[in-house]
Design a protein that fits this description.
There is one protein chain. Helix 5 crosses helix 6. This protein is of the alpha/beta class. It folds into 3 domains: 114 residues, no CATH class; 170 residues, P-loop containing nucleotide triphosphate hydrolases (Rossmann fold, 3-Layer(aba) Sandwich); 76 residues. The chain is built from 17 helices and 15 strands. Strands 8-7-10-11-14-9-15 form a 7-stranded mixed β-sheet, with helices on one face. It has a 4-stranded antiparallel β-sheet with strand order 1-6-5-4. It binds adenosine-5'-triphosphate. The site of adenosine-5'-triphosphate (ATP) has 16 residues, from helix 9 and helix 15.
Length: 466
């Protein structure tokens, strides 16, 4: 059949290409006519004209329909807006996911959930969240709409969720969000949530099991720091500060070589006191960004500024000096933020550094830093405790059967191991890393200790020579 016969019209060569059986549209038209019994290429021109008119009318009305929808929303529905960077977003999305509601959304965004890979068979689990569209669900008998879109906040585009319901009262939405909050708090109880800054917003990175303080091998002096923090957060102390109009803030400086447990200790303190941790990466933060970040901190939290020396704040004979650095902020700006009114009440600031001697006095003066704690390379006692700690699980059954007695064999081996590893030469992280190779063989860990020490010494010497 020729193209002209198919169309029933006299047509030019271009049209003939379109409708020719060998062309894509010809194949489409033939397929469509076989499947549905009607063939658009056999319609007369009036039909096309009518369709075009309808499309035109719809295009014309579309704007009015959008305006009408907005008007309806404004006058007959209520909304609650939830920003992606606010923790209420996590509360809502956890609630939505727990009920599988995200499957009602036609368009979803997939993410690998790095925070939930605690089960072996669930490596890199995927989570799906509603994205760029809307869906409806029933909540306590009310229809609730859930829609997401990108909101331009002037600096960047940010995901925003809009919850909506019919009527002028948003009570049902607030009840829903309260329920999300309660459920979320129940799920993160006994866990530590870690936030990091993305630009001037705090993003939840992970919620993980609280690390008990007993798993960080530190000397008795560090226990004083924990007690100080506990006392600071008590209601009595808060009132004491309020009565004297003193800024209710506390600052700690943890200093010492890499791998001695400064970060682990900070996270454990937060866990012990039931606080969330806010890690501020100040290297690429301008003064304005930092100010905005500090003003968004919740009351009662731990703010962690790691490797504070690395941003280029150095001591100088001329006083404050910002060394040649790529840091986007300034020392004076940072000091103002730490002292300033925008800095939230009830926050514990923990700064860590490998080079306390390089820090400017102004940064660590009392008021900004109230207590300092030095972390050292492992001494004999620490080496022995680390050994007992690492191999503790292998002997759990034995120690349980004897109550909570210390396993004498483990103790003897720990002492023997400590006698073979020199004091103040290796960090706890290095010792742990060595022991983990032998997690199923205590005896080999002790036997090969001297060999490991020799290899480590050589490696360190070679590094210095390079
Ligand atoms: N005192 C310690 N007790 C138990 N584990 C430790 C200790 N010190 C280090 N570790 C382990 O070593 C690893 C690194 O420790 P961590 O990051 O806390 O050290 P750090 O002093 O903060 O290092 P850096 O200065 O490089 O940031 C972690 O896995 C931690 O569990």
């Amino acid at each position: 059949m020729s193209a002209a016969t198919v169309a029933g019209q006299s047509i030019d060569w271009a049209t003939s290409m379109l409708v020719s059986k060998s062309g894509p549209f010809g194949v489409f038209s033939t397929g469509l006519s076989i499947l549905t019994g009607w063939n658009p290429f056999s319609w007369n021109p009036d039909t096309y004209t009518a369709i075009l008119c309808l499309v035109g009318v719809f295009a014309f009305l579309k704007n009015y329909m959008c305006q009408f929808r907005t008007w309806l929303e404004q006058h007959f529905t209520s909304q609650v807006y939830i920003s992606r960077t606010d923790e209420s977003y996590d509360m809502l999305s956890t609630w939505v996911a727990s009920r599988g509601l995200q499957h009602s959304a036609r368009s979803t965004v997939a993410r690998v959930d790095g925070g939930r890979n605690d089960q072996e068979d669930k490596k890199k689990p995927l989570t799906f969240a509603p994205w760029n569209g809307s869906f409806f669900f029933l909540y306590k008998g009310s229809v609730v709409s859930y829609s997401t879109h990108l909101r331009d906040n002037g600096l960047q585009k940010e995901e925003e969720v809009v919850l909506g319901c019919f009527g002028r009262s948003s009570t049902i939405l607030k009840t829903l969000l309260q329920e999300c909050r309660v459920e979320y708090l129940g799920q993160i109880e006994d866990k530590t949530t870690i936030f990091e800054n993305r630009g001037d917003a705090w993003m939840k990175m992970v919620t993980r099991e609280t690390r008990p303080l007993s798993t960080v091998i530190v000397d008795e002096q560090k226990q004083l720091l924990v007690e100080d923090a506990r006392d600071f957060l008590s209601t009595k102390t808060r009132k004491w500060f309020a009565q004297r109009a003193l800024p209710y803030r506390r600052g700690y400086l943890l200093h010492g070589p890499p791998g001695t447990g400064k970060s682990s200790f900070s996270l454990s303190i937060a866990g012990e006191l039931g606080l969330d941790v806010y890690i501020a990466h100040i290297h690429d933060a301008s003064d304005q960004t930092l100010k905005s970040l500090f003003s968004k901190l919740p009351q009662r939290c731990v703010v962690l500024l790691e490797d504070i020396d690395a941003v280029g704040i150095t001591r100088s004979s001329k006083g404050l000096q910002e060394a040649a650095t790529t840091w986007a902020g300034t020392l004076s700006g940072l000091l103002n933020i730490l002292d300033g009114v925008s800095s939230q009440e009830g926050r514990l600031l923990i700064m860590t550094t490998n080079h306390v001697e390089n820090l400017d006095e102004a940064l660590i003066r009392p008021g900004r830093v109230d207590l300092k704690a030095g972390f050292q390379l492992a001494d004999a006692n620490a080496i022995r405790r680390i050994f007992a700690f690492v191999f503790h699980q292998d002997t759990t059954e034995a120690s349980t059967s004897r109550g909570h007695e210390v396993d004498p064999t483990l103790e003897t081996m720990a002492k023997s191991f400590a006698a073979r590893v020199p004091e103040h030469e290796f960090s706890p992280a290095e010792v742990i890393s060595y022991l983990l190779q032998y997690k199923h063989s205590l005896a080999a860990a002790v036997e090969n200790a001297e060999e490991w020490v020799a290899a480590m010494r050589k490696e360190k010497r070679d590094k210095v020579l390079k």
